[in-house]
Each structure stands twice: as structure tokens, then as C-alpha cells.
Design a protein that fits this description.
With 309 residues, this protein is an all-alpha fold. It has 13 helices and two strands; from the N terminus they run H-H-H-H-H-H-H-H-H-H-E-E-H-H-H.
């Protein structure tokens, strides 16, 4: 079958690494998969504020509090850039929020776990932001212009977040026995959910092949997960702590670390809404939306007045 001209131009741009921009013709499925991925990514940033926000009032010093506050604010900013990027594809913000609140849209599985101690803030920074960077740096080269450009700034900020988490764990690792135990316990709880963040294994990832062809994804879920394991297996030595995996072992032949079996049943349960905090997270978001109604009304009333409507 002969390709229509707009499709030829689109394919050619993808081939030549020319960004697709909002007004360019694009296949409907490309638009839809981008709306799905970018809106889920935006939701993850916004829901991701909750587990850490839980520790702002209890941070152990003023310095730690100021840093954590700035980090959580950064996540809000990331959510806003990403919602704006998704809007360029023709979906409204209210519709995206509605999809989040009704459970129609996903957000990252990782944010459905609780933050039990201060060390969890370190583990989130080191592992969760670390995994986010591993996944997101290649997205700076995604074929859709507004998404790729949003990712550049996000990755710079994530890099600072990752370092602050590592520094928290380093400090605890050098502290008293209780502090070291607390850091180790946090790593034990966050490690496996962090490597699940990269998504299902390649042989059960329905979107990878097409999204790689469209250069939205540059690496598969398993490729990025392996890179992340390789880096963390070395970094944990600097912390003087351990990753909770007895099968973690350098494989000379592969040039990578082998690692243990991931509990994919747990992953899918969390994705389906049955994780430890799914219900709480959605209720909190819904409440924030409801409580913000008067702000939205006031803002739109002002805009109408200014525009003489
Ligand atoms: N949690 O075919 P697949 C952050 C879903 S970082 C929940 O591999 P794809 C932050 C997937 O949506 C976290 N669901 O899909 C960091 C799909 O379901 P649907 C957010 C997941 O799109 C620190 C199905 O499983 N990062 O925000 O090719 C502090 C099959 O998957 C997960 C991003 O969103 C998961 N972990 O690849 C604060 C990065 N994994 O949609 C905030 C952008 C998979 O068909 N997103 N699923 O119903 C991506 O790079 C890709 O969308 C993924 C999945 C690698 C996540």
C-alpha cells in the first residue's frame, strides 16, 4: 500500500532525528501513546510529592528541611511542564486530572509505598530519582519536541535530587549503629520496587517495540534496569551498605551484574491499585483537587473579567 504524503514526511523526520512538533501531522497512535506516557509521567511527578512531603515537617535539621522542600517543589514543577507538554497533543488538563482521579490513568508504581523513616528520603533520592534519571536521560532525545525539551530541565533537577539522597544515606551510613540500621532498612524496602519502576520485562512490555521505532523510547525496560543495577551495585559499596539481593553477582562474561528474580506479581498488584498506599495517594490527590475548586473559580473569573467576557 502506498503511504500518504504526510506519513512519508513524518517517517522521514523520525528517521533523520528531526523533532515532531505539535502542529505537524502525526499518526493518531503516536499522539495517543504520547498522551498516555506524558500524562502518566506528569501524574507520577505530582503523586511523587506525597511520600516525601510526609517528611517535610519532620526533617532532622533546618538545612534538610529546606532541601527537601525545594526538592518537592521541583517535582511539582516537573508535573507542570509535563502537563503542558501533554496539552500540546490536544488533551485538556482537567481531563488528565479526571483520568488520574478515576484510576483510568496510571502513575508510577513506586509512589504506592510508604515512607516510614527519615532514611526513606535518602533511599528515594538515591534509588527512585536515580532510576528516574536512568529512564529519563534518553527521553531528552525523544522524537516529540515538547516532551524532549521538558525532559532536559527535569533531568538536571533529578540529578541534584539523586545526589542529595545519596548524601543523606552516606551521612547515616557513617553515623551510629541505629542510623546505619535505619539506612540499610530503607534500602532493603526500596530496592526491589525501584528496579520495578523500569516497567515489565521486555517480553511482556506491549509498547516497547512500536515506541522504540518511533524513537520515543531509546532503550528497552530491561536494558535500562540492567544499567541501573550495575551502577547501584558499585555505589552501595561507597555507602558501606548492601543491596538486599543474594543473587547479585558480577558476571565477567556478560560484563554486567546478575541479579535475583523480580516479584512481578507484586508489581502488577501495585499497578492494579492494590499496593500499600494506592488508596491513600488517590484520596489525597482528589481532596487537593476538591479543595482547590475556589482557586480555579477565582482565577477563571479574573481571566473572564480581564478579557471583557
Ligand atoms: N508503574 O509496555 P510498557 C518520577 C505500565 S519517575 C506503573 O513497558 P511503556 C519521579 C505502562 O504504563 C516515574 N505502571 O509501557 C521520580 C503500561 O500500561 P498502559 C515516572 C507501569 O510506556 C522521582 C504497561 O505497564 N516516570 O516521575 O513502553 C521523584 C506496560 O508497560 C510502570 C515516567 O513516567 C510502572 N513503574 O514503558 C518524583 C517516565 N511501568 O499505559 C517523581 C516516562 C510500566 O498500557 N515513562 N507500567 O495501561 C516511560 O518511560 C515509560 O512509560 C515506562 C513504561 C518505561 C514507564
Amino acid at each position: 500500500m502506498q503511504q500518504a504524503e504526510p506519513e512519508i514526511i513524518f517517517d522521514d523526520k523520525i528517521e533523520q532525528e528531526i523533532k515532531i512538533e505539535p502542529k505537524d501531522w502525526m499518526p493518531e497512535k503516536y499522539r495517543q501513546t504520547l498522551i498516555r506516557q506524558i500524562s502518566q509521567h506528569a501524574h507520577s511527578e505530582i503523586v511523587g510529592m506525597l511520600p516525601e512531603g510526609n517528611w517535610i515537617t519532620r526533617a532532622p535539621s533546618l538545612r534538610r528541611k529546606a532541601i527537601l522542600l525545594a526538592k518537592v517543589q521541583d517535582e511539582a514543577g516537573h508535573g507542570l511542564y509535563l502537563y503542558s507538554a501533554a496539552e500540546t497533543l490536544g488533551i485538556g488538563r482537567e481531563e488528565m486530572y479526571d483520568q488520574l482521579h478515576t484510576g483510568k490513568a496510571k502513575y508510577s508504581s513506586i509512589f504506592n509505598y510508604p515512607t516510614l523513616t527519615w532514611a526513606d528520603i535518602g533511599a528515594i533520592g538515591w534509588l527512585v530519582d536515580g532510576a528516574a534519571i536512568m529512564n529519563q536521560v534518553p527521553l531528552c532525545r525523544a522524537s516529540y519536541g515538547p516532551y524532549a525539551r521538558a525532559m532536559v530541565r527535569i533531568c538536571k533537577e533529578e540529578s541534584f535530587h539523586q545526589r542529595q539522597g545519596f548524601e543523606i544515606l552516606l551521612t547515616l551510613g557513617k553515623g551510629s549503629k541505629e542510623q546505619r540500621d535505619m539506612a540499610q532498612d530503607a534500602i532493603n524496602r526500596w530496592w526491589w520496587p525501584s528496579i520495578m519502576m523500569f516497567g515489565p520485562p521486555d517480553d511482556s512490555s506491549p509498547h516497547t517495540i512500536q515506541n522504540t521505532k518511533w524513537k520515543i523510547k531509546r532503550f528497552t525496560n530491561d536494558e535500562l534496569r540492567q544499567r541501573f543495577v550495575d551502577i547501584c551495585a558499585e555505589q552501595v559499596k561507597v555507602l558501606g551498605l548492601e543491596l538486599p539481593d543474594n543473587d547479585l553477582k558480577w558476571n565477567e562474561e556478560r560484563g554486567h551484574y546478575d541479579f535475583g528474580e523480580i516479584n512481578w506479581d507484586e508489581f502488577w498488584e501495585v499497578v492494579k491499585g492494590n499496593g500499600p498506599c494506592n488508596k491513600e495517594r488517590l484520596e489525597t490527590r482528589q481532596k487537593a483537587w476538591d479543595n482547590g475548586a475556589w482557586v480555579r473559580e477565582a482565577a477563571s473569573a479574573f481571566a473572564e473579567k480581564r478579557n471583557g467576557l
